[in-house]
Design a protein that fits this description.
By secondary structure, this protein is mainly alpha-helical. It is built from 36 helices and six strands. A six-stranded mixed β-sheet has the order 2-1-4-3-5-6. Helix 14 runs antiparallel to helix 15.
């Protein structure tokens, strides 16, 4: 607790000792209010000011007219209202301060020790009202009051410099309003006198320097006297020296010095002033980072100066600064702003100039290492804008030159390929030239061949290219290429990425278009919403195997359409973007957090969906799809159902799918027995069960589906916690919920169709309790093989017996 806090606490206790009406209460109010006002001035806490204002009002009420302390109460209360106005900007508070200030001045007759303060404060309030409302009478009265205060502060008085300073400000204000040179001359005279009384160590020296410089610059602008401007620059430089980096007023000094130097540069056009201006504008830009309201304006002013420097000396360093500033302006400006087009044109011009400089240097020269594609980075982020259309040909030409300088084997070759491809793709989107699109395909194919991970390509460009190819679809390979490029984009947009769902939905849309292209119509897709490196990799792999141990041994990759065994599933994860993100964060967290992060990422990645359905004719078995891409198979009967199921999984954001038709090796009795014994747990561990009702087309027909009559579908209904029912054409049976097991409408239909109460439908646990009810649920169901009826109930009752399946 500070000494001031102690004083406030003491005054509070003192105030509590006085009963209402006691003669000492007024002084207690006053002393506490003054201390709280001091606390406000120290901490800038408006609550202290508000409390001080209330207490001073109470003290004034106890100091009626004629009381010896009334003028002090009026004076202090006026100060509180003035500061409240400074905080809130309410003119009524300023009017109150003026009224109280006049009353205080009337009680401080000549000879009173506080008369000068009363003059000074009332003048200050009146000047503030002039600045708010522009009333000339307020400023004239303020000048008279400040002159009276100055008369009471003769030479040698400690407050004389303040009176000179305040009076000079008022004369300067009147000159700004009325343009009378005599007022400006008076401001300069008073400003000089104030500065003479403020040595470099004085707290107000910087303000005196700054204000006198301002008056002199105004006289230069009025009369054109070079000496005034030179002196103003010298004064501003001195003020800047007193305001080092981090000082709250440094930015103001930088701006004012830059304004003076700009005036002199415009008149004399000297290189020295230009260089100093550039330095000042760089410092100002540093204090206006991206996102600041004046950031773009600061770039504009610095850019114009650097451009003038380039025009004089053509130095590569200044040209590079122009390129950097142009890029920053493009990144910060609003799309459609006329200034953006100008900056883009200037940027392309400067890139051309920079390229010519690169072409003319020897390979050994260090400048040669600055390859053109790195300069192109400044424009590739902005080629989406319509402003780029007029200069896109020039940008493409630079990109071609960059690629020529970076042949196969060069470290920047792949990046140059990707940059040219991105630019050509944007030109195709603007103009629709097929030749550009064909070249983009060739370039990106080479990028992916040289860099299989696609890490040096841009995911958004790959996605856009896939979209262009899918829309064109004039060549037989267009959809295949679209799928390939979207898969590459998806690898760069792992789960959790902002655009992961966009790429995933696009990939499955292209898959579906390819299936449609074979002449079979399906429903259009509807998108839905530090350890060492080796130890960390081992931890990841260990977690993967731990999570997968309870999963079905084979899963369908919904992105590629390939059936994956356990090793393939692990391999897919190890080359995924999710795994790469985990590896890149290996040292960012402690071991427990790492383990939790790994488990969360792996669990999310391997969420799988099961298909529940009534088997139909020609269902694909393991040997029909193993080693083949299901999306490439002829979409007939069971194959079409499997393709539609995998597409629906992908469109709902799931990478893995499982179907009892083709994900079990039914030729292996061991595997078949394990599958039958594990079926319930597989359906319990899944993320979602999709039920395909091939005999349901309309809402309300759920109860009539044969799906409710099949034996195996009983556990497929009870085990999952999340289910969605789909109609014949793979549209949602009910589109009002993301989980039909939480939807009262669907649950009502399920209860009527099965006779199973809501309790068991939503929260079923395996076991032998309520055995009669469980057998009753199964009594209306049948299986193709009689023995399967018993096997289908093993999971429902939580039993394990040998399976003899032939």
């Amino acid at each position: 607790m500070t000494e001031l806090d102690d004083k406030i606490a003491r005054y509070w206790k003192e105030l509590e000792c006085y009963p209402p009406g006691d003669t000492g209460q007024a002084m207690a109010f006053y002393n506490l209010a003054c201390s709280l006002y001091s606390k406000f001035m120290e901490m800038d806490d408006i609550a202290n000011l508000e409390e001080a204002l209330t207490l001073h009002q109470s003290a004034l009420d106890l100091h009626p007219p004629g009381h010896s302390n009334r003028s002090d109460s009026l004076h202090s209360l006026a100060l509180c209202f003035s500061n409240w106005y400074n905080k809130q900007g309410t003119i009524a508070d300023l009017e109150q301060a003026i009224t109280l200030g006049r009353a205080a001045l009337e009680l401080r007759s000549p000879g009173h020790s506080g008369r000068a303060w009363a003059f000074n404060n009332l003048a200050h309030y009146l000047r503030n009202r002039f600045l708010k409302l522009g009333t000339n009478g307020d400023l004239d009265e303020a000048i008279l009051l400040y002159q009276s205060a100055l008369d009471l502060h003769p030479a040698g008085h400690s407050k004389r410099s303040n009176s000179l300073h305040d009076l000079a400000l008022c004369f300067s204000d009147r000159y700004d309003k009325q343009g009378t040179i005599a007022d400006l001359q008076e401001a300069i005279t008073l400003g000089r006198a104030a500065l003479e009384l403020r040595s470099p160590g004085h707290s107000g020296c910087a303000w005196a320097l700054n204000n006198l410089a301002y008056y002199l610059r105004n006289r230069f602008l009025k009369l054109g006297t070079n000496g005034d401007l030179d002196e103003a620059i010298t004064l501003h430089q001195s003020a800047l020296d007193l305001r080092p980096p981090g000082h709250s007023d440094r930015l103001s000094s930088l701006n004012q010095l830059a304004s003076c130097l700009s005036s002199r540069f415009e008149k004399l056009n000297t290189v020295t002033d230009l260089d100093e201006l550039i330095s000042l504008r760089r410092a100002i830009l540093d204090l206006h980072p991206q996102g600041h309201g004046d950031h773009v304006e600061s770039i504009d002013k610095l850019f114009l100066l650097v451009r003038k420097r380039v025009q004089r000396h053509h130095m590569a360093a200044h040209l590079d600064e122009c390129i950097s500033l142009e890029s920053s302006a493009l990144a910060s400006g609003e799309a459609g702003n006329l200034g953006r087009a100008t900056y883009l044109h200037d940027l392309v011009t400067d890139l051309h100039s920079r390229f010519r400089k690169l072409e003319n240097v020897q390979e050994a020269h260090p400048d040669h290492a600055v390859s053109l594609h790195k300069l192109l980075i400044y424009v590739t982020d902005h080629i989406d804008d319509g402003d780029a259309a007029p200069v896109v040909d020039a940008i493409v030409a630079i990109a071609r030159a960059a690629l020529k300088l970076c042949p196969t084997g060069h470290p920047d070759h792949i990046m140059s390929l990707a940059t040219l491809a991105a630019l050509l793709l944007r030109r195709f989107q603007q103009r629709g030239a097929v030749a550009d699109l064909d070249e983009v395909v060739v370039l990106y194919q080479e990028v992916l061949e040289l860099c299989p991970s696609g890490s040096l390509a841009d995911a958004s460009h790959l996605h856009d290219l896939a979209q262009c190819l899918s829309e064109r679809s004039t060549k037989s390979t267009d959809l295949d290429d679209a799928i390939k490029f979207e898969q590459a984009a998806l690898a760069l947009r792992p789960q959790g990425h902002t655009y992961h769902t966009e790429s995933l939905n696009s990939l499955f849309n292209y898959r579906q278009l390819k299936i449609k292209g074979r002449g079979v119509s399906t429903q259009s897709a509807r998108p839905t919403g530090t350890t060492s490196g080796s130890r960390f990799k081992y931890l990841i792999k260990e977690t993967v195997f731990d999570i997968l141990k309870g999963f079905p041994p084979r899963l369908l990759d919904t992105r590629t359409g390939m059936l994956c065994d356990r090793d393939s599933q692990v391999a897919q994860f190890e080359k995924s973007g999710e795994c790469n993100q985990l590896l890149s964060s290996a040292s960012a967290t402690d071991a427990p957090a790492q383990a939790a992060d790994i488990r969360a990422v792996v669990s999310t990645y391997f969420r799988y969906v099961t298909l529940s359905h009534r088997w139909g004719k020609l269902e694909p078995l393991l040997h029909n799809i193993d080693g083949r891409v299901i999306y490439d198979l002829d979409p007939t009967n069971g194959i079409l159902k499997l393709q539609s199921f995998c597409l629906a999984c992908g469109q709902h954001g799931y990478l893995w799918a499982w179907s009892d038709t083709c994900c079990i090796d039914k030729e292996s009795s061991t595997e078949l027995q394990e599958a039958i014994g594990s079926m319930f747990s597989w359906y319990r561990l899944l993320a979602l069960t999709m039920v395909h009702l091939a005999d349901v087309s309309d809402a309300g027909a759920l109860i009539n589906s044969v799906w409710f009559k099949r034996g195996w579908t009983l556990q497929e209904l009870l085990a999952p916690r999340t289910m969605l029912f789909f109609t014949r054409d793979w549209s949602l049976y009910w589109d009002g919920s993301s989980n039909h097991k939480e939807d009262s409408t669907i649950l009502g239909e399920l209860e009527r169709a099965t006779g199973i109460t809501l309790r068991y439908l939503t929260d079923f646990h395996l076991g032998v309790d309520s055995a009669r009810s469980r057998l009753q649920w199964a009594s209306t169901r049948c299986t193709t093989r009689p023995e399967d009826m018993a096997y289908s109930l093993l999971g429902v009752f939580g039993l394990h017996i040998p399976v003899l399946h032939h």
